[in-house]
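A quick aside before the break. I want you to see a complete sequence-to-structure record at least once, exactly as it would be stored in a machine-readable document. Don't worry about memorizing anything.
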Amino acid sequence: MIEFENGFRIYFAGDTDVFGDMSLIAELGNFDVAFLPIGDFYTMGPARAAKAVSLLGVKTVVPMHFATFPPLTGRPSHLQELVGPGSRSWTSNPGIASETLLVWVR
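That is the input. The structure line, written in tokens, reads:
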């Protein structure tokens, strides 16, 4: 978890899969955005990331660890389909400028 001076909170999943304690983490953290891997090879894919979004109770998710080499088949558009209109998922390509992402998250 990362918390900024203004109280904005980020959950950063790193290279993990979905796990049940994400609901406890959500209860303790109250996150504004979650960064979740969606590559579906070494980490969770879009379907499991959608479950993580549900467990974490976030409305904004930034997919990561996808499309950097062929085995990473998960795509942000698939995650967005799975989380539905109640949440939003960043749907850009890898390598986007961090400034653009920060404006979108806010």
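Two observations worth writing down. The first strand starts at residue 2 and ends at 3. The chain has a mean pLDDT of 88. We'll return to this after the break.
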